[in-house]
Amino acid sequence: MLLGSSSLIKVVPGLMIWTLVCFAITFFVLKRYAFGPIQKLIDERRERIRESLEEADRAREEARKLVEEHRARIGQARSDAEQILAEARRVADAQRERVKEETEADRQRRLEDTRRQIEAETRRALEQIRAEVAELTLVAASKVTGKVLDDADHRRLIEEAVGDLDFSVLEQETV
């Protein structure tokens, strides 16, 4: 077979016209009923995708703002917590200092009360010792002199006996 003798390659004017007419009709029908709706669906889908992307960008931006707001609130909460702790520490220190001062004042008051009681007891004991010494002196003087003394003699002997005794030693020991 020869290359130029194929029937498919032969140019036949009638077949060519009918082929062009069929192509034009098919193109017209496809353009009117298929390409338009298909293009419309593609455009609608493209628009939905664009809107979805914009919505995703808005959601991402909102999420970023919420995260920043959350971080700011966490920072504020930490700051507030630190202030509360500092205030609690300050109040606790003040309370502790006040209790310490009250305890020290109470201790000083009790110590002073005890000191006054000791001094009063010491004075009473010294007065009692003086009275007993005076009485013993009178008894001893009566026995030595062999007579009963009157009030003036008693008083003079008591004052001499007590004057000779050194009670300052006892008073210094208690102080």
Please explain how this structure is put together:
- This protein has 175 residues and is mainly alpha-helical.
- It has helices spanning 13-145, 151-164, 168-174.
- Helix 1 (13-145) crosses helix 2.
Provide tags for this entry.
175 residues; mainly alpha
What is the N-to-C succession of helices and strands? HHH
Helix and strand composition category? mainly alpha
Distance between the termini: 152 Å
Extended strand count? 0
Helix content: over 70%
Helices and strands, with pairings:
Blueprint (H helix, E strand, L loop, with lengths): L12 H133 L5 H14 L3 H7 L1
Helix pairs in contact: 1-2
Question: How would you sum up this structure in a few lines?
Answer:
With 175 residues, the protein is mainly α. It is 88% helix and 0% strand.
